[in-house]
Fold these 2 entries.
Entry 1:
Amino acid sequence: MPVLPVRLFGDPVLRTPTDPVTSFDARLERAVTDLMDTVRHEDGAGLAAPQIGLSIRVFVYSCGGREGHLVNPEWEPIGDDRTHVNEGCLSIPGVSEPTERFARVRARGRDLHSRPVSFEADGILARAVQHETDHLDGILFLQRLAPEQRRSAMAQIRSSSWFGSAGISAGVVHDQLSETTGAR
């Protein structure tokens, strides 16, 4: 399966909440495979469907010694402990800022065959579950930062070589994927 371009900060699909998956079919399987191939290629911890231009509630993870995916994910914290470590995003290359997240979470959703999936996670996997679910809700980790951190991150973005790049966020990839996956 192909490695797809990752949508970059500024692309509206990254700020748009996704639609729940209702069809567990070959198109969903292809989307999950494309997401996994892309996250492996990019050496990321996780990747959400909007990051490749799909408006569906699915993400993949490859971190903490585990790989998998969640369709229509939900999570809840386990306890009140929080971590505050550097977090980055494949859609915001070169930017990493300390971001507060729950230390442990219980995640649940479906697999690509609509079977229930649930697991507990800590460390980087707990962080990935929260980060990728945020993507599905149209939230970027920048929105989780304190104002001073956000200003610093935005300055880094504005001075980056990729900022304003039309090649990936022009909608061409999104339109092609919409035809093959049925996503908007």
Entry 2:
Amino acid sequence: MITQPIITSPQLLTSLGDDYRALQRVSNSDLTRLKEEHLGYWSVPSARFIPEKAKVFGRAFHQHLLEPETIGTVMQQLLPDMTPDNGVLAPKQTEQLATLMQTIRQDAFCRRYLRLSERERVVLFTDPVSQVACKSRLDMVYTSPKRRNALIIDVKTTSARTQSQFLESCYTYDYDRQAAFYIDSLRHADSADWATTRQFRFVFIGVMKQRPHRLFAVDATSIPNFIDYGRKKYRFWLRKWREEQQTFEPSVQAWSMSA
């Protein structure tokens, strides 16, 4: 059964997003920003090669797919430069989004898990190595009836034109780190929802933004060392984040005492 919030107004939509961002925990996106700060924005592929409009369209696409009841308000919020004054999405963007939705919903695998999965599931957890409090928000997560198996599905829009190009992008944009972070969010969740789960799988679905709008699938958990390497990445940046917090707090305390 799909459990997702019923969103009836732009104010409530904003509130839900703000509630997640307000959680004083570290997300995978926070680690991306930390990496950009340390290595320099233009030296990080995920920032250098994805134009802002592409990121915005990707967010709109996810909202269109995972929370279709919010389409009208989301289009105006996320794509203001693509919506005329009357609030109606420009025909080109409307057609492109509709085509992408149709492509996904015609696929038997995607259709099945769109129906069975929880969408936009927020998971709170603590990394057992760094002891940093973390959070994740999963596109789709399906847990088997006896909770022995869990499947996470993350949908990406992509400019890749072949399966090999999409797989390459999984390395270029740190999707291995994302997959490891999300899997471990279930393993170490503060709730006991996945305490008895034995197997965790993670599948990336890529949908071509250009014609012929093919779908690509990458089972991240079937690639040797993919998740292990991603785990090393996110834990490296969690250590950096913790070190910065520990350095920052004494500085604030010293400033407060001298003020």
